[in-house]
Amino acid sequence: MKLLLLAAVGCLLIAAATAEVMFEEKFDDTWDKRWHKSSWKQSDGSAGGFTLTAGKWFGGDEAAAKGIQTGPDSKYHATWAEMKKAYTNKDKELVVQFQVKHEQDLDCGGGYIKLIPASSKSKMKDFGGETPYSIMFGPDICGYSTRKTHVILPYKDKNHLVKKDIKCETDQLSHVYTLRLMPNNTYEVYIDLKKVESGSLYDDFDMLPPKKIKDPKAQKPEDWDEREKIADPEDKKPAGWDDIPATIVDPDAKKPEDWSNEDDGEWEAPTIPNPEYKGEWKPKMIDNPAYKGIWVAPDIDNPEYKHDDKLYLIKDIKYIGFELWQVKSGSIFDNILVTDSIDAALKFGEDTWAKIKDEEKAAFDKVKEAEKAAAETKKAEEGSKDDEDDEYDTEDEDDKAKKDAPSATLEESADEDEKDEL
Ligand SMILES: *[C@@H]1O[C@H](CO)[C@@H](O)[C@H](O)[C@H]1NC(C)=O
Fold it and tell me: Domain containing 201 — which CATH number?
């Protein structure tokens, strides 16, 4: 047992030892020497930024727990760093991992990371939403409708979002997101070091056009019968059917006694609907023996389709960055790793996030308990003052905050983003 354990640890160590680390960032006082503030959105005053902090609750050593936090609210936050060299994942895994804590209880905003190719070099000064990238990966939250983990892979100048819905974490604690791309054109997504999704790049993304399409030249044959039911040719209109009138003279009507033909004209009995009348005759409908179903064009090989056995391949990754719009800011990013080994990434996660998460949760619970106690004290004080007005006041404020939150704007811009990307 001990031997086995030793062997397992040995394997991990070897895997970790042979792994190539393209980028690693744990954030400390020197972070802004490596990370550049983008000038994106600065001219119109809508640019936010990042500050180094461990946040209101954290686990372990405060210095080690520090990451970079978005702020202020309702701004675009963009920063980027350069990797040691341009990296191409030919015949190798590519693993991107980072940790994020939405301390603010993110209502609407991005929490994803981007890898960016060397070819975007001239655009990095204003790195932002429009800068071409190689991978976009991580959580995106807006209300209850958008709570997903994006995996977007550009292919031939078009961005392709994974078709599977991968849920993301929405609480106020640190979580680790890991994307693994493999040379056999499969991918895996891990959250908190556990695999939550996996699949084929062919099946789960629309990078390649479909293999088969409906033949656009095919035409429905003239004699193709799409009528499921037809009138029964055997069915005949019963004799006398058309002789039954729709209305008849009311047999109960009587000429009023004081009716004067001279003054009032010839008396005519009123008519009423004929209870015998059966309406217009229609033949019975029967199954059409010539029915062939709804015609569909036959499938043919799509002339646009060209197989690519290297969908996973991403050339010359050179930069890494965040470009995020958030209504409520405060997300803290930390412990970024780009490597060619899932084992190395998971070990990195074990050594960082896994070691602090329980303590962080305990610290979070303590803060929340203190906040609850403070709120109760305040309520008790206000209660002693009197009255119901206070309650109405708070409700009004809540409503106002809801109305003011430009979440619709973000939904729109997120949709637009996606359209651009897709
Ligand atoms: C792809 O490669 C990974 C890692 O080597 C392996 O675990 C997985 O089973 C492979 N998948 C397929 C479909 O070949």
Answer: 2.60.120.200
